[in-house]
């Protein structure tokens, strides 16, 4: 089953250049996104993990309930990836983690990740580049609404 991406209205009428770069050698790139059916509401998350050859190493679609743990980075550690590049269209998330201003609900998990030998780089990307992680995040959130486990 492929990822189905439909058309959606745009907020800006000016075209912006969007570029996609593979991660450097010996790094993995995690594109990540979250989605919620309300605020607050059932939330989901999605990641796409690629290597320097642009190969997809894995995808993850997760129902998160009402929290947003750094699950993509935890997965990377569990898979023994040590050089991780995290890209997201959420500027607040990209700014919060490197500055250690994380929500209290994920603070202990974030500190555990910092204690690991993982080296993490964070960067922002446009929503249009992050469409596959967005699709997986919405799928994860809707799975909870449908009563999945």
List keywords for this structure.
149 residues; alpha/beta; Nucleotidyltransferase, domain 5; five-stranded mixed β-sheet; 4 helices
Task: Describe the fold and architecture.
The chain is of the alpha/beta class. It has one domain: Ribonuclease H-like superfamily/Ribonuclease H (Nucleotidyltransferase, domain 5, 2-Layer Sandwich), CATH 3.30.420. The protein contains 4 helices and 5 strands, in the order E-E-E-H-E-H-H-E-H. The chain has a 5-stranded mixed sheet. It is globular and about 45 Å long.
Please, how many helices? 4
If you average the pLDDT, what whole number results?
A: 78
Mind describing the biggest β-sheet?
Answer: 5 strands, mixed
* Overall CATH class: Alpha Beta
CATH topology label = Nucleotidyltransferase, domain 5
Low-confidence segments, given as residue ranges, are 145-149
Order of secondary-structure elements: EEEHEHHEH
Helix proportion: 25-40%
Q: Span from first to last CA?
A: 20 Å
Number of strands: 5
Radius of gyration computed on alpha carbons:
15 Å
Q: Pairing-aware structural class of the strands and helices?
A: alpha/beta
**Strand coverage percent:** 25-35%
Number of domains: 1
In a few lines, what is going on in this structure?
The protein has 149 residues and is an alpha/beta fold. It has four helices and five strands. The two termini are 20 Å apart.
